Amino acid sequence: MNTFGRILRLTTFGESHGIAIGGVLDGMPAGLSVDFEAIQAALARRRPGQSSVSTTRREEDRVEFLSGIFNGKTLGTPIGFIIRNQDQRSSDYDALASVFRPSHADYTYQAKYGIRDARGGGRASARETAIRVVAGALAAQLLATLGVEVLAYTSSIGGVTLTQGYLDEIQRAEIEASIVRCPEVEKSRLMQEEIHRVQADGDSVGGVVSCIARGLPTGWGEPIYDKLSARLASAMLSINAARAFELGDGWAMASSRGSLVNDEMTTEGGGINHRTNHSGGVLGGISNSERLRLKVAFKPTATIAKEQTSANINAETIRLSARGRHDPCVVPRAVPVVEAMVCLVLADFYLLSRSSQPIERH
């Protein structure tokens, strides 16, 4: 599927080394004032070539809107947009046309379709995520009108991990002050050193992106098969190189006792609230007004210069040292993508919640 969402639906298209990548965002309500600079700023956070810890591919990533916006406001009609590819080096992939890179989608795309675009990974490239960032930035502007804010940050790279589990009061300026998007200064330095070490060795390293959302009301999410938690998991694991998803205290709860991880409910201040938030702000698949808390684990970049054993299209064993421009660690550039996908999920559930309000009786 190339479409995500139920009411707010994003369809993406394009390949890494094609003329352009693009998307259509359908279901956005009419009348939303669009901040184009904010969208471009979100893209700048994801674009390649932004620092010494990212790929050296240079793309301006200027979004061109084709439809759905007039005089700075959404029309309620499909919002079409493209980003032109400008810095392709397709010759870097000539040697990979008949070779399968270890742990990459090369093999499965070839097996499924019988044909693939080997240039830069084609459709399986993380280049596609730029379109998600544009759509997510639009969704974020819709959520902002409701007082909802989504912030993601790097919490782990290799063996370097933040001291705190979740930073509920984090601010964007603290995240963006670091080229690896880690708000803790000393851990940020160690993460950069770790990336540079593996880069010098022709290798790559993985890590974790943490994300919080503030200002969610109670009631977003659908029962049983379309839970908020389930859709978030689907959204996060649809991101390139994502390998694990955790909501709230997640795995730690599996080895604990209910008396220790059940969220305490209180009536302080005249309303029902939660003193603890082990569940990550979701109960029964529905938001409970607490901070949404989640983590996404990303594997090391699959394409590396270090020699590895692999196979070619003729089922022959080969030794491969991949060429090309690749991130030694995808985590810093994955941060805005995680934010974007969370925003798309939350905006979709907001629109769904409007259809499940009780009927007013007169």
Structural summary, described in words:
The protein is an alpha+beta fold. The chain has one domain: Chorismate synthase, AroC fold. Strands 1-2-3-7-4 form a five-stranded antiparallel β-sheet, covered by helices on one side. Helix 1 crosses helix 3, helix 3 packs across helix 9 and helix 6 runs antiparallel to helix 9. The longest helix has 23 residues. The protein starts with a strand and ends in a 9-residue tail after the last helix. The model has no long low-confidence stretch (mean pLDDT 91).
Descriptive labels:
alpha+beta, five-stranded antiparallel beta sheet, 9 helices, 27% helix, single chain, Chorismate synthase, AroC fold, 362 residues
Classified in CATH, the superfamily is: Chorismate synthase AroC
Number of strands: 19
Range of helix content? 25-40%
Indicate the proportion of strand residues.
Answer: 15-25%
Regarding quaternary structure, how should these chains be classified? single chain
The computed structural class is alpha+beta
CATH topology, what is it called? Chorismate synthase, AroC fold
Q: The biggest beta sheet, please?
A: 5 strands, antiparallel
CATH architecture: 4-Layer Sandwich
Structurally, the number of domains stands at 1
Distance between the termini: 44 Å
Mean pLDDT: 91
Number of helices: 9
Output the helix-strand order. Answer: EEEHEEEEEHHEEHHEHEHHEEEEEEEH
Question: What order do the strands of the largest sheet run in, or round the barrel if closed?
Answer: 1-2-3-7-4
Unreliable residue runs: none
Mind telling me the C-alpha Rg?
21 Å
CATH first level? Alpha Beta
Task: Write down the overall geometry.
Answer: globular
